[in-house]
Amino acid sequence: MIGAGRRYLSGMRRRLLALLTVLAALLPALPAGAGESAAVRSPRATATLVADQASVAPGETLWVGLRLRLAPGWHTYWRNPGDAGAPPEIALTLPEGATAGPIAWPAPERIPFGPLVNFGYTGEVLLALPVTVPATAEPGGNFRLAAEANWLVCEQVCIPEEGRFTLDIPVAPPPGRFDAGLAPLFAQAEAALPRPSPWPATAGFAGRQGSLTLAGPDLSRATVRDAVFFPDAPLLDNAAPQALTLGDGVLTLALARPEGAAGALPGLLDGVVVITDAAGVRAAYTVAAPVGALPGTVLPLWQALLWGLVGGLILNLMPCVFPILAMKAMALARLSGAARAEVRAHAASYTAGVVMTFLALGAALVGLRAAGMVAGWGFQFTAPAFVAAMAWLMLAVGLNLSGVFGIGASVGAGGALAARGGHAGSFATGALAVLVATPCTAPFMAAAVGAALAMPPAATLSVFGALGLGLAAPYALLGIAPGLARALPRPGPWMERLRQGLAFPMYGAAAWLAWVLAQQAGPEGLGFVLGGAVLICFAAWALGAAQRSAGARGRGIGRATALVAAIGALALLPGLAAAPPPPLRAEAGAAEPWSDARVAALQAEGRPVFVNLTAAWCVTCQVNERLVLRADAVQAAFAAREVAYLKGDWTGGDAAIGALLRAHGREGVPLYLLYPAGGGAPAVLPEVLTEGIVLRALGIPGRRAGA
Prior knowledge:
Low-confidence stretches: 1-33, 408-421, 584-589, 702-707
Number of helices: 18
Number of strands: 26
Strand content: 15-25%
Number of domains: 5
Largest sheet: 8 strands, mixed
Mean pLDDT: 79
Distance between the termini: 110 Å
Radius of gyration: 34 Å
């Protein structure tokens, strides 16, 4: 019985072997598996060139890939191999007219090797890339793919391997036909590809320690089992444990830089986050995280409040606020001889306008950043529509001071303040002072704002409130000691002449903002703002005529005309959003555009690098550039030291520049960085420059501190 069974099994084996032999002979003619080349084999790996289609149509795109089947214990590498190794390379030879894209890298795994950690693949991996067939390909022929590939396989030792592959794919009328045998392989490879992260990502570093944070309501201990980050570039200590912390909608991975790491990190930390969910399913996501300060390493709250108060006080001396000084001077002149209660009321109204506007700006920044947007100090000036509206507002204030129309008092009067209207005017003046001051960053203020935006919302708003109190402090002092108003000159006819004279700083501010807009939106944008300025002037004239009219009909027509003209100006703002930016101009001796890669390249050449992060709307930036950075002594020092001068323009907003600002604890411009030759972290220069400060930073002695 046993012998009969054995004979039966032996016969079945012979028949099965014969069947397999026949199938093997027929296999090249079958569609399944037709898109795989002959294999290159070694004891460590089997490599083939594969395609996802058994036939292609002219102009069609197919996926072609290097298929590696690795022996147990062996691995190959990702595009960033980690601490050792090299990524596989594929060089295709294609028919004329055909094109190929880059490798689509599946998410890797961490592969420890002693004290090192590499990034790569074990088992089987498909490194695929898209290939487009020329539209001129003739149906009935073959589309020939030839490839040379090399790859590194490692166990205890690393062995380089290579192979040459050829693949002929029939060209057929459209549509092409997928290879049923290889379709699951390509589907599996596609599932392993990272997709864009649905969660906003941020990174922070202080010294060697850092972190990567993802924020989203679906990230919690109940949904995430594990996570790991793979950087695109060799920036991190790969062997350092990436401790996972999960909170309410926040996932944080601990990161570390290598020992002795030199130089600043790039503005964005790019890479892949692989998340394993509660069911053990692995999913990969690409991230580009702006790099800033490490949470918990910013200033303590009390210090941020103090620096905010001092920075706000110094902000009164910054050039951005000069246009508003005209309005402040007029208000102070009118308080001369006023009752103590009146002085206190106006001081309180102005202070409230300043503080509440600062709080509103702080709340807007918190909200925008919570929504995943990149927003910092002065962010509203990156919008051409806002710049245009501010230019028109400055023009309108100037026309009011010139007596074209009145607000809260009869035109041409310089007399007593109307209680209600005067207090509202003081509040509005405070609010306007904040809006106009935002293009400037004062000493102490930059660190305070940077620290505030890394704090919880309540602490952020408290720091912005301290900034407001600092800016309002000179005027608020009158509320505390109203007797100081008696030291001011007595009211008289001179006030009317002063008022009219103070209109011209407002006209100057409007002209400056028009110039800023020209930098953002080019000649077309300038046309919009000038057209709107004409309408604003017409509206002011019509309103003034209405105020002077003796009849109710004339007043009604004048006010309606002014309203229509003002609405016409506002209707131009959407056009500014669509206005193209001006073309880049190459000027002799001008700075190079900033990029992190360019800084690294120049340092590698052995050159120091001076980086100027600026914006057209930043008055402090423009003053520093014209009076200091363009000075003959500074330019000569740059030439003598072979200093490369790079400029990062934040006029229209730029995420990479915003990230670089946050990496140095700043949320606004200006920021001046001096990178040493050969590599290393930059020195940070003050917001307000002098020739002496720059020259001493370059190692040139002999200048006094204020020189």
